[in-house]
Design brief:
Blueprint lengths: L2 E11 L2 H12 L2 E6 L2 E5 L9 E5 L4 E9 L2 H14 L3 E4 L10 E5 L5 E5 L28 E9 L2 H12 L2 E7 L6 E7 L7 E5 L4 E8 L3 H13 L4 E7 L5 E7 L5 E7 L10 E4 L3 H5 L8 H5 L3
The structure holds fe (ii) ion.
Length: about 300
């Protein structure tokens, strides 16, 4: 398998105090460490030290996304494959970030920095590994059990899609095809067994459309919407359902202007799952199945 999952996103948050408060108390992530310019957070059911790093910055956006690999040797193998593919690769030394080992870093054709890592401290999910309860005490906010996926934008959707397929063995669960019947406007890619670990859409180069946290069911989505009401979080769209992935969803913004999503549902993917194709005439239903139209903000605001 080699790449096991989307393990980490590092998000730039200019509205620092409010953003840290929001990710800890409204989203409900758990702080595991901090330094002068970063706060390290994890979702409650993740065992690794962190999955979200907030970075004090002048502008919002994605610093990088990172995939966790199964072994340290995977880093060497992928590094070699990337070099042979013509991609420039850097090594990030162990200890560069709190609780992390070495990482391999490269840039994808849509402009985002991507890292591969294996070593990270394991802190557990707050419950014993023998005879545990279903959830730990002390959860606050939406309390997602895990980081789920992200959607990135750029010019060369086909280039990044192909790199993820060729080097890492990602597969296309769904794709949105242009009117020429061929070129890809967006792809939803999986390496695990969800409809997407990462998605890529044609848009501003090197930007983030959203990061998504998993919630277990529709009732949790409704509770998340209640918390957005209570905390005056700016909602972009939803609660609703996607045609693409069939998941239920709400899109909303953090206090720094990065779009977040809570997502649940969808289907299981396998290596032999066929690719589903959407055409532009049905884009409304593809994105928001109930409304059957997409608001302008959703297609124009990136961070
Ligand atoms: Fe999403």
């Amino acid at each position: 398998m080699a790449i096991m999952r989307l393990g980490r996103v590092q998000i730039r948050v200019p509205n620092w105090e409010k953003s840290v408060h929001y990710y800890k108390n409204v989203i409900g992530l758990i702080e595991t460490a901090r330094d002068e310019n970063h706060v390290y957070l994890k979702a409650w059911d993740e065992h690794d030290h962190h999955s979200v790093i907030l970075e004090k910055a002048d502008s919002a956006g994605l610093d990088h996304l990172a995939f966790k690999c199964e072994t340290a040797e995977d880093l060497d193998i992928y590094e070699q494959k990337l070099i042979e593919y013509g991609v420039e690769v850097d090594r990030i030394p162990a200890g560069y970030r709190i609780a992390e080992g070495e990482a391999v870093r490269f840039r994808v054709p849509t402009g985002q920095l991507v890292e591969l890592y294996h070593e990270i401290d394991v802190v557990g999910n707050g419950m014993p590994l023998v005879n545990p309860d279903p959830w730990p005490d002390g959860l606050v906010g939406m309390a997602p059990p895990r980081l789920d996926h992200l959607l990135i934008s750029g010019d060369d959707v086909e280039g990044t899609t192909k790199l993820f397929q060729d080097i890492f063995g990602f597969r296309i669960a769904e794709q949105l095809i242009a009117e020429d019947g061929e070129s890809k406007i967006a792809t939803w890619l999986f390496k695990t067994n969800t409809p997407h670990d990462v998605a890529i859409i044609k848009g501003p180069q090197g930007k983030l459309h959203h990061i998504a946290f998993w919630l277990d069911d529709w009732t949790e989505i409704r509770k998340a919407a209640d918390l957005m009401g209570k905390n005056k979080v700016m909602i972009d769209a939803g609660p609703t359902r996607h045609g693409i992935t069939r998941g239920t969803t709400i899109y909303f913004f953090d206090p720094s202007g990065n779009r977040n999503e809570v997502f649940c549902g969808g289907y299981i993917t396998y290596p032999d799952s066929p690719t589903i194709t959407w055409t532009t005439e049905d884009i409304g239903r593809a994105i928001f199945y109930f409304e059957r139209e997409v608001n302008e903000r959703f297609t124009t605001v990136f961070s």
